[in-house]
Amino acid sequence: MPGDTARRTESIELDGSAGVVKARQLVRSLAQEAGLSLVDQTKLVTAASELARNTVVYGGGGRMEAEAAWSNGRSGVRLLFADEGPGIPDVELALTDGWTTGGGMGLGLSGARRLADEFDLDTGEGRGTRVTIVKWAR
Ligand SMILES: Nc1ncnc2c1ncn2[C@@H]1O[C@H](COP(=O)(O)OP(=O)(O)O)[C@@H](O)[C@H]1O
Ligand SMILES: [Mg+2]
What is one Pfam family matched by this protein (predicted)? Predict the structure, then answer.
């Protein structure tokens, strides 16, 4: 992305609940370093938690990549959640509040989209899932 720079991407293995805990801790510390407010730190950690859990539960495990980000003089945090699982056939449906195939609340993906400043979902039937979110300090 033009104007964006990043350094030191850290990767966390998401193979179970221990990975989700580690991901939450890393996201909290990157959010603090980026100067996000306490409220925005919590929004980002909440979004990350939901996406990490989806990676474990539906994606069959995967990883989170996390890095500091800068754009137009703002600092932020960029997170990627990637798995090689079954993918999501209907993205619009998956982003609908309350839609779940796993008996959950169906608010993870839609909630993460609302909580982040930028949200990108790259998936499809049979090709895994990649979700990228960014949260900027304001
Ligand atoms: N990484 C993923 N791989 C495959 N399917 C996923 C993934 N993440 C989400 N989904 C699908 O999207 C649905 C909605 O996810 P979400 O909004 O987090 O709700 P919930 O986790 O409560 O089901 C899931 O039930 C699942 O069918
Ligand atoms: Mg979920």
Answer: HATPase_c
